[in-house]
Amino acid sequence: AYLTVSIEPLPPVVVGDAVTLKCNFKTDGKMREIVWYRVTDGGTIKQKIFTFDAMFSTNFSHMENYRKREDLVYQSTVRLPEVRISDNGPYECHVGIYDRATREKVVLASGNIFLNVMAPPTSISVIAADTPAPFSRYQAQNFTLVCVVSGGKPAPLVYFKRDGEPIEATPLPEPPAAAGSWAPRNLLHRDLDDTKVPKSLAAAEGEAGGRRPPNTAEPPRGLAAERGPATEAIPETVVSREFPRWVHVAEPIYYFRHTHAPVSDGTVEARATLTWTLNPQIDNEALFSCEVKHPALSMPMQSEVTLVAPKGPKITMTPTRARVGDTVRILVQGFQNEVFPEPLFTWTRVGSRLLDGSAEHAGKELVLERVPAELNGSMYRCTAQNPLGSTDTHTRLIVFENPNIPRGTEDSNGSVTGHRSFRLVLALTLTVILELT
């Protein structure tokens, strides 16, 4: 007797699809059994998912007499109504027939197939790295956008666009496994303000026979310098704090890195970073988008952000009518525009220190515990800044008298002192005198 077994190949399938595995076998013998296995743990475990045992089957109408030599073709199918990521992996179809010479001997053959289950990404988001953080708008600095794509299998193709146009970026190698989180190095930059007259490059080179003047630091070298052995020298200048300007030799140079990490559910998390030297004058209100292509998607996924400096913070104060001894909360609730990246908030008191003695306070909320009457009329400044710019907003604290606290009886912490304590001592003294008399 002879037996051949094969499983029909399947293209990659998408999570949720209905899948039918088909096992075809050809024989001139009599069937004994059909068994389907799902193979896991690299082939060490075989999970039985379907069994047909001819010994206990009463349906022999499709079977021929095993003594009659005739090629018979059969097909066994297993249907997965809604395939999942966990269904990904190899499957085997085992077929056994009785040998024609003796009924005691069983001839076995098998076929296998790998079911490739794809999953489209479930989420995509764009964030700014290392924010909120102080950012000097008078010095060119690195800025990094991070695109996080989760839930996909296999790893998706991720790329960035600016104002709808694909960005041509210089790829960076993946960091070593032991390097930990990667932080972009400083790009080559020089501040230049064309409202001031820069020194002549020829004059600068002519000093000391073309040698660099003493105490002049080497220009910072980083990612941008790696593009070629030669970099353009920019003449020194005086930087104006009112009109900062950044001069680029050409278009901004972008650097791109793409990494992915496996997740326990069989999918991957992909992270793509885009780094360049930020120029607030040209990057403010620039639209950046991260797009994802994946074989399980009919069209790309997209997430976009617009780089915008904060404008017009909206500040609220509670209680609206503060009294001596109250705890006052001053909170930034939003802006007149959509701000990205997240701003850094700094609170200061105009002309003096804060109530707790500190020079400034970081955070969206400033809390003043048990305000004393001395804070009446004090002015507070909230500075909101992100890499695109900063804005200041002031609010004045008006403190009203508290009928439960007589005027002049609170200390700097809002605690009751003075007349009330004096009245208490006087009452105790009178009590003692009355008892003695």
Automatic annotation (TrEMBL):
PANTHER family for this protein: IMMUNOGLOBULIN SUPERFAMILY MEMBER 21, NECTIN-RELATED
Swiss-Prot/TrEMBL GO biological process terms: heterophilic cell-cell adhesion via plasma membrane cell adhesion molecules; homophilic cell adhesion via plasma membrane adhesion molecules
Gene that this polypeptide is encoded by: Igsf21
Role this protein plays: Involved in synaptic inhibition in the brain. Selectively regulates inhibitory presynaptic differentiation through interacting with presynaptic NRXN2.
Keyword Iron-sulfur: no
Subcellular location: Postsynaptic cell membrane
Subunit composition and interactions: Interacts (Ig-like 1 domain) with NRXN2 (via Laminin G-like 1 domain) in a trans-interaction manner.
Source taxonomy: Eukaryota, Metazoa, Chordata, Craniata, Vertebrata
Main location: membrane
Domain of life: Eukaryota
The Ig-like domain, residue ranges: 16-109, 313-398
UniProt keywords, alphabetically: Cell membrane, Disulfide bond, Glycoprotein, GPI-anchor, Immunoglobulin domain, Lipoprotein, Membrane, Postsynaptic cell membrane, Repeat, Signal, Synapse
Keyword set includes Cell membrane: yes
Annotated region described as Disordered, given as residue ranges: 203-233
Gene3D superfamilies reported for this sequence: Immunoglobulins
Topology in membrane: Lipid-anchor; GPI-anchor
Record's protein name: Immunoglobulin superfamily member 21
Cellular component per GO, a single term: postsynaptic membrane
